[in-house]
């Protein structure tokens, strides 16, 4: 067996997903999965750390310590579902928590106390997967297209895998074995923000609130004029751009709009920005497979299928539950690190070449 654990806590800031996976023989066999939600205080602190604030150096370090405890709990929960012990696992691939992503300034920061995680779980930890790609002139994101290519590409067919997390990104898997991909823009981040503000809920379950509203076309048109959407790839984004102030600036001329109509419009912003990217970069794709929490939003899924005119399915159809995909990808990146194989696709990130990604914290 070639066992790895992948941990992913993404831009939604809701918690950490973990998987235990066996890469023996080149396949990826998931043996266990767990999700550990973050308590409200940690979520709020991680949200606050997305932008400049007082004493952030110390606060980041303390948040990193707390994260390590939740990550270690997630590792313990996946192991508890099997007969496996820490010594059976070759490494934990831990994404960490993105608190800044500024590749144009030469850095991206995923916080987490990786030394503490190694100490707490007694397994080698591989972390900081994005920095080397940025050092080589790349965006450092998205990284999952390399994993999607390795697992899901089919000769002679174009497939698209789209992740709709806080931010949305696509992987275009071409029939010739090559892959491209980039961040298309907001996934759930703006919808989550809006429903939290108006209803105190973490997200719009199944898009039901959006479905009760009507799209405000002038607002949608204005938001689609955001320059990011027209930028050529390679490109990546995050809460650094799509934050509350961005939303408030867009909404300022629409102060009297009904909240459910705004939610319908934000949902359609995600649909159209994704659909435009797919139509432009994969016009002949036969199917689009969705992972990330957006796969559980029926309104988003149906509207995307209408917009694209091709089947839109969850990645369950590829044998991977949508909420496990990214954790699986970071287990795979740890495996690539251990084998000293490249983890990035320069055609995706724009790096000068292939690089081994990650840094090791031995157990
Ligand atoms: N049942 C559901 N109905 C609607 N939306 C849902 C549902 N379940 C999850 N989501 C959405 O998915 C989000 C979480 O998605 P996910 O865990 O893929 O994000 P992430 O990994 O944190 O983000 P990223 O991929 O950008 O790093 C939630 O915040 C919510 O908006
Ligand atoms: C800097 C950062 O954390 N980026 C995330 C984020 O969440 C989705 C999208 O933006 C993607 O670029 C990336 O995550 C996935 C795992 C990736 O690197 O492919």
From TrEMBL:
Pathway: Cell wall biogenesis; peptidoglycan recycling; Amino-sugar metabolism; 1,6-anhydro-N-acetylmuramate degradation. GO terms for biological process: 1,6-anhydro-N-acetyl-beta-muramic acid catabolic process; amino sugar metabolic process; peptidoglycan turnover. One of its GO terms (molecular function) is kinase activity. InterPro entries: Anhydro_N_Ac-Mur_kinase, ATPase_NBD. It comes from the Bacteria. ATP binds at residues 10-17. SUPFAM superfamilies: Actin-like ATPase domain (SSF53067). Catalyzes the specific phosphorylation of 1,6-anhydro-N-acetylmuramic acid (anhMurNAc) with the simultaneous cleavage of the 1,6-anhydro ring, generating MurNAc-6-P. Is required for the utilization of anhMurNAc either imported from the medium or derived from its own cell wall murein, and thus plays a role in cell wall recycling. PANTHER family: ANHYDRO-N-ACETYLMURAMIC ACID KINASE. Belongs to the anhydro-N-acetylmuramic acid kinase family. This is Anhydro-N-acetylmuramic acid kinase. It comes from Pseudoduganella aquatica.
């Amino acid at each position: 067996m070639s066992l790895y654990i992948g941990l992913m806590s993404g831009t939604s800031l809701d918690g950490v997903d973990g998987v235990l996976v066996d890469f023996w023989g080149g396949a990826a066999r998931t043996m266990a999965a767990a999700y550990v939600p973050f308590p409200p205080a940690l979520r709020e602190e991680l949200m606050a750390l997305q932008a400049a604030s007082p004493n952030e150096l110390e606060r980041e370090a303390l948040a990193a310590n707390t994260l390590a405890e939740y990550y270690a709990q997630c590792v313990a929960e996946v192991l508890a579902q099997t007969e496996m012990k820490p010594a059976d696992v070759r490494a934990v691939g831990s994404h960490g928590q993105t608190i800044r992503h500024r590749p144009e300034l030469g850095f991206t920061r995923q916080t987490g106390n990786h030394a503490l995680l190694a100490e707490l779980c007694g397994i080698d930890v591989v972390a900081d997967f994005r920095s080397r790609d940025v050092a080589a002139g790349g965006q450092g994101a998205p990284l999952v297209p390399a994993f999607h290519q390795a697992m899901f590409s089919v000769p002679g067919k174009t497939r698209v895998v789209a992740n709709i997390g806080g931010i949305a990104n696509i992987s275009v898997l071409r029939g010739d074995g090559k892959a491209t991909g980039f961040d298309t823009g907001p996934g759930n981040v703006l919808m989550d923000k809006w429903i939290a503000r108006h209803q105190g809920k973490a997200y719009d379950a199944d898009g039901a609130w959006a479905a009760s509203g009507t799209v405000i076309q002038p607002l949608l048109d204005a938001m689609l004029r955001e320059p990011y959407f027209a930028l050529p790839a390679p490109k990546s984004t995050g809460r650094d751009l799509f934050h509350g102030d961005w939303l408030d600036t867009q909404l300022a001329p629409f102060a009297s709009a009904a909240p459910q109509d705004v939610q319908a419009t934000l949902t359609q912003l995600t649909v159209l920005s994704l659909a435009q990217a797919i139509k432009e970069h994969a016009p002949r794709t036969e199917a689009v497979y969705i992972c990330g929490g957006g796969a559980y939003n029926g309104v988003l899924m149906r509207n995307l299928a209408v917009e694209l005119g091709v089947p839109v399915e969850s990645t369950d159809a590829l044998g991977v539950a949508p909420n496990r995909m990214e954790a699986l990808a970071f287990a795979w990146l740890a495996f690539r690190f251990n084998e000293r194989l490249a983890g990035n696709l320069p055609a995706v990130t724009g790096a000068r070449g292939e690089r081994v990604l990650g840094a090791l914290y031995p157990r």
